[in-house]
Amino acid sequence: HTLQLVVHHALKNQTISKCSAGARNIVEHFKKSELACSKLKLKQQQMETAQNMLVEDHWPVTAVLSDPMVIQKGKHHLDLKPEQWHLLDELKQALEPFVLATDFMSGEQYVTVSSLPPLERGLQKTMNSVTFDMAAVQAFHNSAIEQLNNKWEGVKNLKTDSSEPNIVLIASALDPRFRRMKFLSTEEMLNVQRINTDTCSGGQG
């Protein structure tokens, strides 16, 4: 849910919204038009492009949308401009880390709460390592990083008072998958270990 809030807030960009609306119109047109859909499949076969990769391989879409049999004369031209296709391609790349993180956090065969700290650090590392050509996508990217910091502030902060520890970090430290705590600095790792020791000692007393 937090990841969705981060993405939705960051997507509030006029250029991205306009481009996304255009893309939705294209998808809706192909859904409603059997002729357009059949021509698209044929064109994709001819161009040897994947049927589910409309953004990466958009040339079949452009070709079909320029067909007067598909788009009636006088109707609004549905196809996107080259820079809009490029924007969608970059936006897809920018969203991929969030898709992967959401899929992981939706898993039911493993514990996820202890995964939050390494997941957050991993997202930050991935996002800080890339930049984008399109200004709107870079703005989305920057906003997403800022939102991620704000939303998950509690996940990153380690309270030094063992009477009120950061339960999520403690859970990560106790999880065999993350017990080396590579997502923490040396100082943070030592603090977690100390709090764990204090907590266990208090429980025994």
From TrEMBL:
This is Uncharacterized protein. It comes from the Eukaryota. It comes from Scleropages formosus. PANTHER family: DNA REPLICATION-RELATED ELEMENT FACTOR, ISOFORM A, INNER CENTROMERE PROTEIN A-LIKE ISOFORM X1-RELATED. One of its GO terms (biological process) is regulation of transcription by RNA polymerase II. SUPFAM superfamilies: Ribonuclease H-like. GO terms for cellular component: nucleus.
